[in-house]
Write a structure and sequence with these properties.
Chain lengths: ~375, ~375, ~375, ~375
């Protein structure tokens, strides 16, 4: 029970179904005195919004957030911030056909089994629409991280077999949003877009990888032993719809190297401790070391396809289903701000948690 | 602060440094009336214990657990279970050489930066010795899971480039412990052992992958939206020392398939709902669907190598370090029971959490 | 930080200021399948509502709750329940005079000092208007408790020096709402009402005691050692605005008896274990014993009075303030449903927590 | 389940039964760099220890604490602090007579009902012996509070009908430990001691009140709306064995005053904001205002008496019981350090929580 909260000190609790009256959330633990940049929050929501380009779902959802509390005269007051996003385009009829049919690789069957009841419209609570609330909170977290000199960048680094060859350090991450697929390399982006277009025409879907990079994070964030920074980061990413894998630093590739090859040697540069390589991904023993954090998040292809699929209904009888409505052939372009939001939420929470670590900084 | 607790209802809180007086923990929320199989707990600890074979560290640690509370006349009483494991073989002098030197890719620098003070002996709290406590709690969790018909199996599926070709479903998982590397395929195991032997001779280390399979898990476990079962599972695995990546079901390979290829079609078999494939790894929308859960956990090579490495000391001055003492050339054989323990802890916690989901099952 | 959540398994998180756009909350962990009695929730809100009689504040707040999620076709779905209550009667001008003036015994100074910023209108987050959200969640909790045969009754047992002489067991608790002060004894009620009328005319305020009785609670609720049932109950009550004290069972009067007089002797009656007296208030060692739970909650007089009071402004300069607007001369009649709500929330949370206590009831 | 933890950032989790091998706990979240004054911890334990005078139980328990982790070379390292207290004087035979008999007003029946099993020896987990762990953690908390200029004083202010007439501000609190009953007024102390002596001779027990005063607490501690400082303080006190009531500031007496009499008027004195009276007990709106915090904690008479009492056994059959062994005729003298410990734990936790409140103090 009660799994709708993320965070320890900067806490986000959310609610809302895809086709209910509204989604929303409560941010508890936001420091007082933050000037809210409402335009920035809006722009972040627009990066996640359906209908933003021809390679994503054409659903129309304005995703306008309404803040109800915790902000006074444009500044946070330190009290809980309540917000809602009304559902405007509730074409539930698109979902009438699947009232009792379990869509393959969706959460229909599992919700039905767990709860004995479910709001079937658009996936209800299991819909990725829920992530809009994460973007709202993530945007506020980013505003605070900026005060601490931290930048969070995510981008699409792979779509199906089309893989961005360059490392994050070879890329101009400011170009991520210069194309609709959100890959900072123009050439690769083009190939990705073509593939997604083809996939959509075939009524199919593709997955891929989003890489996330956090720069400017100072050393010392993360808590031993269970709340290691990368463990909390991993959990946050894995909680995003359609995510199947997470790795940080050298990740799964670590196994192709020997210890002598993988170890990051310490050195001092301009009076600052750095490592000559960064296979650790900025995290050692679960605690940041001041180097860039980077990680990969694997998304499976969207489960809803415009093809006939065999399945069963809630009575266990064989039937089939054919996707209707307006769905994403590839969810990655819209997932970039979500990945950034999750990173920002985790980082900020750990920054706050780390504020009470050293006695001599307290009194 | 305060990251030494795992779980919501079945909670494990641990303490202890590698070379302090003792490690230990408190299990809170263990149901009352469980008969404790002390031999089983002991045998699980022995699977993790140093010195169990020639391919692991030759340190001598008996890892005898002493239960101090919560068990009366062999049965759990429902109150908190306190336990300790004394540190017997405290050869701290092996670590005298690195009092002020930051070992590459270890947590020395990050702990020092975070806390301003650290117990440098054997890595202190960042030592993998801490995982002994996880195995104690994991063993108790397994005893309970058995009552629910659940089995948790982990095995080494890859060491460096030597990869077990067969899927878990093609293996006899009861053979995992029949060899010292804990790979259920004899031939692959032999190759892995040879590689580890070579690596040790070279004073180097290698990493690999442990696959974990959970059978007999009924549908309905996992909590939307942040505490999805695989998110909690991922966090638990990522919190193990040296882990760099986690994937479940089709994992990162999902991106090489189209939605039409990856989707798991539902069918009814012998009156039970199953999916014809299981790319979902038994979890859909974060909730179990009754199929096997399987996941991969990537371990990097152990950071301590028997070679000279450049580094710095706590004053920032360049120096070098050469591993001493008795270390693992490959941590995977000993990590198998740890991975199983983390899976067991997460599953049990979610089983308990799921007990209050349906009103008509409550009253 | 982050103190806006109550409960472990049945969790209420709230937001909202007195004169912001809306108040609201999220209930997480509500079991699935509960038929929501919207009329009952409305009636509970009306018991708390301003303007319900001439002895309470004459502010007009309709307190209409809008449920945004977690309920589908009239039943809870097990997902988080979001709800809001719009603020309609935002006469903030009543508060313009105290923008920079610290009202005596209010939270103006403490909020200002803690946060460096505050929404001064109507007390902002510190306003008792926040308790409307508790009543919404409490009403839902009551609906579930009813399924378990539990009844929660609160009533006004003392206003200033006018004290209800009878014990709860001598009263007909169904008569509590038969008068506007919510004291089940008609005669005492009349005296209380007269006193409140006089007090209001004098521009002053009075406090008193609300007694709360929970019947039908089975044995076994409450968790040692910190989450004893009465400890959680006490915290919940003390978190209500204006509450200064809490006692349960014989309470403070226990000290006037010897152990031999106070001890409750066990006996068996009709096959059921009971105690011949109930000085324990239904709780022994922090765990319910099946007898009635009863407790007293002390409310101080409302701080806002219609008289001139000396105080200081935010610059520390001496000034004075005179209450304006529409305030309660005595908050107790409206606090009865709040006290009941807190009791219901705590009881339900502990019922859910207790569901995983015994192994043999789990599998 | 899982109620053995107190605190949010400074967390104490405990284990241990009265007659098991050991009690102990884990302190998680203790700031790094605190020099541990082991003598102070020992002296605090001695204030709670049995056998310290002729008016308390004559059991012999040395209560020697052994720290197992989290402290290196005398200083806290920021990692979890594990500690144990061995049970040395396990005269369980004193309890053989009550294996199946429910002692009146003890937790035997409720534990049995809740768990279906219990360690009956000496009350098992429900024994007040558990509070030794609170004193260990409380002593560490006090060491930190001292750095912040905070002092926590508790004293016995009432035993049965013998009431200390003076307010805390009229007393010399440094004299509390100058007599065995821990009442800072010599004359009253004498009367209390006589009463306890008489009571003991009669084989009976008496209760009373402990007053707790916290000085030097700066403004701003406490979190709206559920984690108000006095709510957390109340919960902590109510979780102590035998406590039946809690009040702070004017407490229950508030109801005998009008708002105009009770309100604390603000004024500026020597550049500091103070209130001319302090009926608020240093807490307004749940947040400290810089004035002294004071509260009363009511303890019932100890349930174990040296007299025959009627009761039932676990089969429900009528029987009787007569207290044996060495018990406290009055628990208050030994409860003084426990009350102080709970106050210290709550204050420190809220100090840490308050460290992330204001944005401009973070970056």
């Amino acid at each position: 029970m009660a799994g709708n909260t993320l965070g320890t000190l900067f806490k986000l609790t959310t609610f809302g179904e895809s086709h209910g009256l509204a989604l929303g959330g409560i941010i508890d633990g936001c420091p007082a005195g933050l000037e809210i940049d409402f335009d920035f929050i809006k722009s972040e929501l627009q990066r996640r919004k359906p209908g933003q380009s021809h390679i994503v779902t054409q659903r129309k959802e304005e995703d306008e957030v309404e803040f109800l509390s915790g902000i006074y005269e444009g500044k946070t007051t330190g009290t809980s911030i309540g917000f809602i996003i009304r559902n405007e385009d509730q074409k539930s009829k698109d979902y009438n056909h699947n009232t009792n049919v379990y869509r393959p690789s969706h959460a229909d069957y599992t919700y039905d089994t767990k709860y004995g009841i479910r709001d079937h419209r658009g996936g209800g609570r299991s819909s990725a629409r829920e992530t809009a609330c994460r973007v709202v909170a993530g945007a506020i977290a980013k505003l605070i991280l900026k005060k601490d000199g931290i930048q969070v960048h995510a981008y699409v680094s792979q779509v199906a077999h089309i893989k961005l060859k360059k490392k994050y350090s070879e890329l101009d991450l400011s170009k991520t949003d210069s194309n609709i697929v959100r890959c900072p390399d123009a050439e690769t982006a083009e190939a990705m877009i073509s593939l997604i277009e083809e996939t959509r025409k075939a009524g199919d879907t593709v997955g891929g990888i989003i890489t996330c990079v956090c720069k400017g994070v100072h050393a010392g964030l993360g808590e031993p032993v269970f709340d290691k920074l990368h463990a909390d980061l991993g959990k946050a990413m894995l909680s995003i719809n359609a995510v199947k894998g997470f790795e940080y630093g050298a990740g799964f590739d670590s196994i192709h190297k020997k210890g002598s090859e993988l170890n990051d040697l310490f050195e001092t540069k301009d009076g600052k401790v750095i490592t000559s390589t960064n296979n650790s991904g900025g995290i050692q023993g679960g605690i940041t070391n001041g180097m860039d954090i980077y990680c990969n998040v694997a998304f499976k292809p969207v489960a809803t396809i415009m093809q006939e699929q065999a399945t069963i209904d809630s009575a266990g009888e064989a039937t089939s289903i054919h996707g209707k409505g307006r769905h994403d052939p590839c969810v990655l372009p819209r997932a970039v701000p979500i990945v950034e939001s999750m990173a920002a939420l985790v980082l900020l929470d750990h920054i706050l948690r780390n504020k009470t670590t050293k006695l001599n900084e307290l009194f």
